[in-house]
Design goal:
The protein has 434 residues and is of the alpha/beta class. The protein has helices at residues 15-23, 47-59, 74-89, 100-109, 126-134, 148-157, 181-186, 259-265, 279-297, 305-311, and strands at residues 7-11, 28-32, 63-67, 94-97, 115-117, 139-141, 162-169, 204-210, 216-218, 223-227, 236-237, 252-254, 269-272, 318-319, 342-354, 359-364, 368-369, 373-378, 381-386, 390-392, 397-398, 400-401, 407-411, 424-430. It is built from 10 helices and 24 strands. The strands form 4 sheets. It has an 8-stranded parallel beta barrel with strand order 1-2-3-4-5-6-7-13, surrounded by 5 helices. β5, α5 and β6 form a beta-alpha-beta unit. It is globular. It is an enzyme of class 3 (hydrolase).
Length: 434
């Protein structure tokens, strides 16, 4: 069976992350429009940088999508088209949008501009896909709350429109972003791009009780309170039923094991979440999903070591989300692997390689020492090495790279140093040993 390779779409919270994504195999990236995307608080892209990013992407034969996916309030309607005009002039390959009114305005003003429907619109069925297709949209990003069977059914009912799904990254505890926690605690609206991630806070449980009027009081025994450190001194009642008490911090989505199935369905694009994540995160996740896609389209069996490598990138653990209701026995060990998984730490960024001397110049990010086993990560391939020596920038032999900001040289036998400026030096260790 010939499988069409789906597009790999990676996050670009900055130009550096965009460049890392392309170097490690992304076909396309997405970045946010200032003021009008759902990462407005952590968006390094100005209009000027969007133009640079779009031009660099097109020069490499890659795609650049601009997220303009807020659910707009009236005060942003009047300025929207004026602010969007310079973005359109840069010719992005698509806008990612959610608000029907804004979509209508864009379609009227720029009818030739491709528009992709954001996951924020919560498309759950084939009828909704067909509706948006009649509105002239070229692609629909399906809701995260769909199973593999439901996605396949939508593909069968809607064979002539592009479909995109998320395969990796953070999950919202609400229905794809329709959450009021951030607005309640901090008066910052998630649908306006200002989410403070209140669901991620470290809540402290305190004991309390209710008086005869139903008012809760601290320091007694029958009720529970929670307090977030970001809101010291403020207590909120946390109710408990017969099943227990629930907090809001979802595990991260990891669906790399489903890449082949999604490709076989004919899903057009597999998307990685993470515009606020580090450049190393973008590079590593992109590299692993690139391999999974290439293996699937080449007819190779799934490499489960990809799941192991991803373990070290999540602090919250992983879930398949809604893709399968029941995980097969052979995957059960991955449900709680964050307790025993191998963690990864970037200890250096690669600067230069002297092939005649086989010396690698490294900008140190974290300490490492002679005798450490490290991984050299490059777009052209990864290498494991046990350090036999470290030289300071002045050429003196040292036993330990002293810390962030220093430059050192280490011996390394690299066969292909192409795109070395995108490389990393990585330490692996088990949580049980750290």
């Amino acid at each position: 069976m010939i499988i069409k390779s789906p597009e790999l779409l990676s996050p670009a919270g900055s130009l550096k992350r965009m460049r890392r994504a392309f170097a490690y195999g992304a076909d396309a990236v997405y970045a946010g429009q200032p003021r009008y995307s759902l990462r407005a608080r952590n968006n390094e892209f100005s209009h000027e940088k969007l133009v640079i990013g779009i031009n660099e992407a097109h020069a490499q034969g890659k795609l650049f999508f601009v997220a303009s996916n807020i659910i707009a309030q009236n005060n942003k309607i009047n300025t929207y088209l004026e602010d969007l005009a310079p973005v359109i002039e840069a010719r992005p390959d698509a806008l990612i949008m959610a608000d029907p009114g804004l979509i209508m305005m864009v379609r009227e003003r720029w009818p030739d501009q491709p528009v992709h429907l954001s996951v924020q619109s919560n498309v759950m069925n084939y009828a909704a896909v067909k509706f948006w297709q009649t509105m002239g949209l070229e692609r629909v990003i399906l809701s995260r709350e769909l199973s593999l069977k439901e996605i396949q059914a939508i593909r069968e009912y809607c064979p002539d429109i592009e479909l995109e799904v998320f395969v990796h990254g953070a999950l919202c505890m609400a229905h794809s972003g329709r959450c009021l926690l951030s607005g309640y605690f901090n008066h910052r609206d998630p649908n306006q791009g200002a989410c403070t991630n209140a669901c991620r806070w470290n809540y402290e449980v305190k004991e309390g009780t209710e008086d005869e009027w139903g008012n809760a009081h601290l320091e007694t025994r029958t009720a529970l309170f929670e307090q977030a450190p970001q809101r010291e001194g403020e207590l909120n009642i946390m109710e408990e039923d017969e099943h227990g008490t629930y907090l809001f911090n979802s595990k991260d989505l990891r669906a790399i094991q489903h890449v082949e199935a999604l490709a076989q369905m004919g899903i057009d694009c597999l998307k990685i979440e993470g515009r606020t994540k580090s450049d190393f995160y973008v590079a590593r996740v992109t590299q692993l999903y690139r391999k999974a896609i290439d293996d699937a389209t080449a007819g190779k069996p799934f490499d489960r070591s990809l799941m192991d490598t991803l373990e070290g990138l999540s602090l919250r653990g992983y879930t398949e989300g809604f893709y399968r209701r029941h995980v097969p026995e052979e995957y059960q060990s991955y449900k709680d692997r964050n307790e025993t998984g191998i963690k990864q730490q970037v200890v250096g960024e690669l600067l230069d390689y002297d092939s005649s001397k086989q010396l690698l110049k490294v900008l140190v990010k974290n300490q490492f020492s002679v005798g450490d086993t490290l991984e050299i990560m490059l777009p052209t391939g990864n290498y494991r090495t046990t350090l036999e020596a470290i030289d300071s920038a002045e050429g003196h032999s040292i036993q330990r790279a002293p810390g962030s900001g220093h430059v050192v040289c280490i011996p390394a036998n690299i066969q292909d140093a192409n795109q070395l400026e995108h490389g990393y030096l990585i330490r692996h260790w088990s949580e049980l040993q750290s």
